[in-house]
Amino acid sequence: MITDPSGFPTDRPSEVQRPRRMTRRRWVALIVAAVVVLAGIGTGTYFLMRPATPSTTRTFTRDVQVAKGDQTQTVSVDGTLSPRTQSEVNFAVAGTVTAVKVKVGDTVTKGQKLATIDDSALRNAVDLASANLASAEANRTEVYDNDGSSAAKRSANAQVTSASAALASAQDDLDDAVLRAPIAGTVASVGLEVGDTTGSTSAVGSSGSGSLTASSTSSSAFVIIGTAKWKVEGSIGAADLASVKAGQPVTVTTDASTEPLTGTVASVGIVATSTSDNGTATFPVVINLSGSHTALYSGTTATAVITTGSSPDVLSVPTAAITSADGKTVVTKVTGELTSTVEVEVGKVFGNYTQVTSGLSEGDTVRISFSRPTTTSSSSGQGQGGFGFGGGFGGGLDGGAPGGAPPAAPGGSTGGR
Length: 417
What we know:
The chain is 20% helix and 39% strand. The chain has helices at 24-49, 120-145, 150-175, 238-241, and strands at residues 2-3, 9-10, 55-65, 67-83, 86-89, 95-100, 107-108, 113-117, 178-180, 185-190, 197-198, 205-207, 222-225, 230-237, 249-254, 261-268, 274-275, 281-289, 301-318, 323-325, 328-335, 338-343, 345-350, 353-358, 365-375, 414-416. Helix 2 packs antiparallel against helix 3 (150-175).
């Protein structure tokens, strides 16, 4: 019996499917596909298992000329801007708030009304104190008219004095029912509203220029700040404490001002305010800004540079040019095409520059060497990125030396070797 491909009987031989033979073209296609798969596996295995590319180091040099110039010593301080005048204002008497006359951002003058409380009980206290004073005065008059004894006269006078003081106190309390601004400025916060009850233990406090005071708290009924005079509050380390003194000039930069601001050191604390985990203590510093500034904001970060000293006509070289060899301080001196190691004596350090007291003369040329690691790539055969002196050494070589620092030597080189 003949069956078709599905297994059913058939009488037609033509419906029987004959097995297909593998042609030469099919064999070639299978072989090519196998070769491609094996090549891909081999390439991936190579990149995964190949050893790390060894790194190399490139050294760059620059020749600079030794020169004389005026140098300054500075200390940098990071701090926060705050107004030099700030007052926390509260009611001095108890009562229920009946009116709040200002809001945050309002400008107020000294003595302007800020809020009031219900003063009916305070007025009654004044009336009672006034009546007591009248009674004490009448009693004293009667004692004197009747030629009373000395003791009676002293007692009558004491009663009048006490009654007068009570009346004055009651009148002060009545006056305190109206809360007024103790300074002119801007309302920074309002901490009460109509219907609130004020306590009798509140007080009025203010911070003047240069003082080390705590910042305002949310318990204050009002906080008023003066927005014309400002200060920077920061801290310095113990190493800089001896060199920073009140009256030294300061340059301040902030995010709120496009131009540097000037000021002076107002005070330097001698008691550490904090100690880091490694035991380093910091001391508070207050810097008063000069002039008036209405576009600054309390809490803005600021960086202050304090000038702690200056030295005129100093022979100096970039600090990066100075190294140590065999326990000596040396530089690489360049004479024409030749270089030599020269021992030098150094003095003060001015940031990126160091004073040279002996071993070099004005006009000499020294070489700075700077090494950077590079990684060569097997695919390109070139170092990654370019290396040069785009940023300079410590901000003083390519961008211009501060304070008359040594310029680059004529024909000096900057390159790799």
